[in-house]
Write a structure and sequence with these properties.
Blueprint lengths: L2 H44 L2 H16 L10
Helix pairs in contact: 1-2
Length: 74
Amino acid sequence: MPPEEKDSIYLLINCLIALIAAVVILRPFFNGFFGKLKYLNLEIKRTSGSERRRWKKKRRRLFLSLIPFVKDNM
């Protein structure tokens, strides 16, 4: 097997390992995020008027919390 093919295989294996590690590390964060998002969407569907606007504002803040320097105030 030529050295270029070995390098390609090693690069592919390293990328797969990095992807699996990222999924394992970030999974608890995304589970919490999607749980909160589901709750907020249920509240938005349940309410109307000014209360609905408040829940939409909370959902917007949740999405903004994905940006590292914005805090989630839920």
